[in-house]
Each structure stands twice: as structure tokens, then as C-alpha cells.
Amino acid sequence: MTDVIDLRSDTVTRPTRAMLDAMASATQGDDARDGDPTVRDLEALAAFRTGKAAALFLPSGTMANLIAVLVHAPRGSEIVMEAGSHTLVSEVGGLSALAGTLPRPLPGRRGAMDYDRLREVIRRPGIGRDRAGTGLIHLETSHNQAGGAVLPLAHLAAVRDLADRHGVPVHIDGARLFNAAVALGVEAAVIAQHADSVCFCLSKGLSAPAGSMLCGREDFIEIARGYRRMLGGGMRQIGALAAAGIVALEQMVDRLADDHATARQLAEGLASLDPALVDPAAVETNLVRVDVSRSPIDAQAWATALASRGIRAGAYGDARQLRLVTHRHVDPAAIERVLEAVRSLLASH
Ligand SMILES: Cc1ncc(COP(=O)(O)O)c(C=O)c1O
User: Fold this and answer.
1) Ligand 1 within 6 A of CB of 212
2) pLDDT average, residue stretch 299-317
């Protein structure tokens, strides 16, 4: 039987041989008690790669974003963010339920919040006369809901400048920070320089089994460490996970360009089958949003039909969109199989 091609997410990537070897020989300290040397090495490497002074190993990107809000933003303050931000739509409202803050979603274009609207709503932090102050500006790059779009460096710089003028901190949800960096052809630190804190996931295209890093100033990370404990995120013998994370950062970043190439191959192939499905020019990284709204069947039916042809895909956006994500286990030959499956699916409807 031919292998299933899983395009639901880059989180399905399995650890590499080098990761498994590094995990087998990793240190086994109790990180939540007195620390683990491999975790410290991973944190130092993450800080270095993002140009920050310190970093903290966390179980997930969701916890990293939540802790960033907890540390930066006073209770009752507003978190200004693009309306489709993962933290707003897919993290179960933690910023309100657990951090006591108020999301202020702004419309955006390709994941970049409208700068003029931002200028209108931004306030000094603290309690205003009739409105809460801005506790944090939250950015996301690459942007999941915007089809893996990358925030332009000029946008980041403009937001940073505005934030500085109001004394407001900036956090970047960089779950796929290295995809953004590879797409822009810059080091991750060039993106992260515009934020007070940044997080990224080891568990997505970088192929580590689990874990995310939150990076920022030393005093920020010190408080974040306390919140990690509060949220139950202190982990014990995680030298093995950290060892995989180090391999992820050392060996798996540059190859993300391959995932971007397969995403482009997929988008161009789909557009040649039916131009209404996707605009290849909108595909900047490893995410392909397919618009099936003009097709006779909805996104869920597409996903079911593809599954019967050995391809797994996610249905989104009120049944009008499929999200296809390329990663290490999807090579150009697999993309040809996907295109063949879509061709037969279109022919049968
Ligand atoms: C943009 C973005 N932020 C945060 C997360 C959350 O990461 P995790 O699944 O590790 O909690 C994701 C996960 O898909 C994401 O795409």
C-alpha cells in the first residue's frame, strides 16, 4: 500500500535519526527542580538565534503566547492583534480567561494589521479615563490564517516605532518564525529585533517531537519561568526533548526552503487544474490555503474525498477552505500524487 500523504499540518513531522540519537544520549536532569544542562544549552541557542538575552523551554506555542501576555500586559489591558491571529482564534481564549486581558482585534491584510487602525487604537499602558490602556501589541509571522504570509520587515519596523512612542511592548508569535526568516532570506534575529519577546515552535516544520521557545530579556524570562511553574508547564527529565530541539535548530532550519518549494509546486499545480482554487503568488512559505467555495462540494467533502485517495487535508473557514501544509515528509513526487488525486476528484464532480 502506498503511504498516506499527511498535509494537515507540519506538526505531524517525526523526529530525524539525528534527533533520536541525540535523545538517546541526552542528560537526564530534573529541569523543574535544579535544571538540566541540555535544556540550558537549548535555551542559550534559542536566545542566540533570536538575538535575545535569554530563552525558556516550554511545552507548547500556546503556553508561550499566554505567558508573553501574562508577563507583558497588566490585567484589564488591551492586547492589540490582527483579527485572524492564532492566539485569538485557536488558543481557547487564554488571554482573557487566564491573563484577564481584553483582545482588540484589528482588520489585517495578509496577516499584517491595518497600521492606520493601530495608530488610532493604541494607548499608553495603564488605566485610561474611559478605556483600558494597551498592554501589548501581538504580531504573528508567518501568519497561519493568512496562508503562511510573512510580515514585511518594514511593517515590523513601523509597528515597533509606534509601540516605542507609546511605551507599549511588542510580542511576536513566531510559531513558524524560521519559515518567515527563510522566506525573507534573513536570520530570525532580524525579525525578532522588532519585538520585546518572540516565541517559536520546535515541533512544527523543524521536526522536533515537542516544545516551543519563548525568548526575551533576562528579567522577562525570569518572570516567565515563574508563570511556567504556575501554569503547570515545568517539565522534569526533558534533556531528551531539548537534545532534539538543539538538532532542530542546528540542522533543520535551512531545509525549510524545500517545504516552501513543494508548497509552491502544489499551488501552481492546483492553479493549473483550476485557477479559482489558489493564487500561487500568495504562497510565501509552507501553507497553501485552497478556496473550494466555487466547487460543487464543500471543504469537508473535499477532505473526505482526498482521504479516500490516501491524502489527509484540513477543512477550514466555514467549509470553504482547505489548508494544505508541506513538510519534511512531503517530497515533489508526493505533490504529483496529490495533484493527480485532485485531478480525478475534479473530474468526478
Ligand atoms: C501561529 C501559531 N501560533 C501558535 C500555535 C500554537 O502552538 P502549539 O500547538 O504548540 O500550542 C500555532 C499552532 O499551530 C500556530 O500556528
Assistant:
1) yes
2) 93
Q: How much distance in Å is there from the Cα of 201 to the middle of ligand 1? A: 7
pLDDT in tens, 196-230: 999 999 999 999 999 999 999 999 999 999 999 99
> Ligand 1 pocket, 228 CB below 6 A?
no
Q: Which residue of 86, 206, 285 sits with most ligand 1 atoms within 8 Å of its CB, as the best mutation to test the pocket?
A: 86
Is domain 17-251 given the CATH code 3.40.50.11540 in the classification? no
What is the CA(326)–ligand 1 centre distance, in A? 16
Q: Closest ligand 1 atom, CA of 212?
A: 10
Residue nearest to atom 5 of ligand 1 (CA): 61
Burial class (CB in 10 A: 0-12, 13-18, 19+), 42: buried
> Each residue of 25-49: pLDDT tens digit?
999 999 999 999 999 999 999 999 9
Interatomic CA distance for residues 343 and 186, integer angstroms:
37
Best of 90, 179, 197 for a ligand 1 pocket test (most atoms within 8 Å of beta carbon): 90
| Ligand 1 centroid distance, CA of 227 (Å) | 19
- What pLDDT does residue 280 have? 98
| Average pLDDT of the chain, as a whole number | 96
Q: What is the average pLDDT across 137-156?
A: 98
How confident is the model at residue 240, as a pLDDT?
Answer: 98
Per-domain residue ranges of the chain: 5-12+255-347, 17-251
Of 207, 243, 242, nearest to 56 by C-alpha is: 242
Mean pLDDT value across residues 173-188: 98
Residue 123 has pLDDT above 60, yes or no: yes
Q: Is 173 in the pocket of ligand 1 (CB under 6 A)?
A: yes
Please check whether the two domains, 5-12+255-347 and 17-251, share a CATH topology.
Answer: no
Q: Give the residue-averaged pLDDT of 141-152.
A: 97
> What is 5-12+255-347's CATH number?
3.90.1150.10
Q: Is 286 in the pocket of ligand 1 (CB under 6 A)?
A: no
Contact residues for 197 (Cβ-Cβ < 8 A; gap 6+)? 52, 68, 71, 72, 169, 170, 171, 172, 214, 215, 216, 220
Q: DSSP string of 284-332? A: -SSEEEEE-TTSSS-HHHHHHHHHTTTEE-EEETTTTEEEEE--TT--H
Q: What is the mean pLDDT of residues 85-98?
A: 98
